[in-house]
Amino acid sequence: MLTDAQFERFSTFIYEISGIRFQSNKNYFVASKLQNRCTALNLPNFDAYYDYLQKPSSKLEEYPKLMDEVTINETFFFRNQPQLDAFEQDILKPKLIDMKAKGQNRLRVWSCAASTGDEAYTTALQLISLPEAQGMAIEIVGTDICRKALETARNGVYKPYAVRNIPQDLMQKYFTHDEATNTYQLSDTIKKMVTFQECNLIDENRIKMLGHFDIAFCRNVLIYFDEPSKEKALWNMYHAIKDDGYLIVGHSENIYSQRHIFKQDKDHTAAIAYVKAPPGTPKL
Ligand SMILES: C[S@@+](CC[C@H](N)C(=O)[O-])C[C@H]1O[C@@H](n2cnc3c(N)ncnc32)[C@H](O)[C@@H]1O
Predict the structure, then answer these.
(1) Is the pLDDT of residue 220 over 90?
(2) Which terminus of the chain is more solvent-facing, meaning fewer CB atoms within 10 Å of its CB: N or C?
(3) Topology at the third CATH level for domain 81-276
(4) Ligand 1 pocket residue status of 146, Cβ below 6 Å
């Protein structure tokens, strides 16, 4: 356990670098994660680790390792099928048809808390099967603050739990089962559709480097933020999403409190889709 003062110091530190807000009931969780870092660095106690984090070199080397520890990377392919079906029918297909009609042939999709890649690859699997996507240049970018998760994403090897919801035909076509390890290797055809990069959602300058997207997924990450860090992340996403683009949030989430930034797309409620609020919308 951390003392109250230690918890306050570490949780504030984590919040400032990531936007993730730990409440005091997470003391045991945070302590066990910090203990892993103390052990790895051979440091005698939490205070020594806090001092270590203040070293200038820690920003590049230790912050990412701390993030690897404290982030929750739970994800799986085709997470919430009804939402994804609605996304495909109501957003993706009409968007592709509209883009083609306008002579635009490049679709950019962002999975902004991609974890081990399951969400970004799910979009790739949806797109590769769509006749409307034929002839389009598809670019899917998966980003996350957790380096470890991104490494798994790039490898594209998954345990049965992660792939359990994938339709059989897609499974057969795009995965190879390895009997020895009981894992599933994703084919290069799908892997090539997605690139992964480290990116912190509250880092405005880093996000600017990603360019602009037609569709952004931001599912199951803002639940770890408080209102100010949620607002910061959403403004960053606002600038990264094209004016006629969409933001898709998790099926049990809503960002109503930030409706001056994104407003729910009333025509596409099943997809849990949001569009940009008109510029100058007052904060209520
Ligand atoms: C629970 S996973 C969600 C994965 C996927 N979007 C899904 O819904 O299945 C949350 C992810 O958010 C990432 N994350 C947390 N804070 C972040 C931040 N400030 N910037 C970028 N990613 C962050 C974590 O590393 C983790 O991989």
Answers:
(1) yes
(2) C
(3) Rossmann fold (3.40.50)
(4) yes
